[in-house]
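Good morning,

Attaching, inline, the backbone tokens for the sequence recovery test we're adding to the shared suite. The designed sequence is right after.
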């Protein structure tokens, strides 16, 4: 059986490469919108409602109400529904320490428990919750901590 052991090694290698592809697919990359522009950055900013200095935990992508909101990586939907202040919120867990959030959606196209692929349309942009204009508030968390989404957004697939 030298032949069979050779095949087993080959299979293992293919699985490994497949896993690597998946790993890349599960790492956030690109913009969470098809069309739109960054209207508010990450970090300190003036709260549009209170005029007070506050910490903005994500990036805001403004655009037309009803425009496409996209998953920036493959994963499973762990929250789909209203969340205080966030309006209709989607949360996707990517299984590698990463979690992404998409807030203020007009309409959700996926539900909790659904699996999504990178680039899939998951919602329609809106201004539900605490939002003064139609936009997506986009957050990236790693190991439970909010990280700056900028570097992920700049990376295309």
């Amino acid at each position: 059986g030298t032949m069979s052991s050779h095949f087993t090694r080959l299979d293992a290698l293919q699985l490994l490469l497949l896993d690597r592809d998946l790993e890349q697919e599960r790492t956030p990359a690109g913009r969470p919108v098809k069309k739109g522009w960054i209207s508010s950055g990450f970090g300190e900013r003036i709260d549009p409602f209170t005029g007070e200095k506050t910490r903005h935990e994500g990036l805001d992508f403004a655009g037309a109400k009803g425009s496409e909101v996209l998953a920036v990586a493959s994963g499973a939907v762990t929250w789909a529904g209203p969340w205080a202040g966030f309006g209709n919120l989607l949360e996707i867990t990517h299984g590698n320490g990463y979690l992404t959030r998409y807030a203020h959606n007009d309409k959700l196209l996926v539900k909790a428990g659904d699996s999504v692929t990178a680039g899939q349309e998951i919602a329609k942009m809106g201004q539900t919750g605490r939002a003064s204009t139609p936009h997506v508030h986009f957050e990236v968390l790693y190991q439970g901590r909010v990280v700056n989404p900028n570097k992920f957004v700049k990376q295309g697939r």
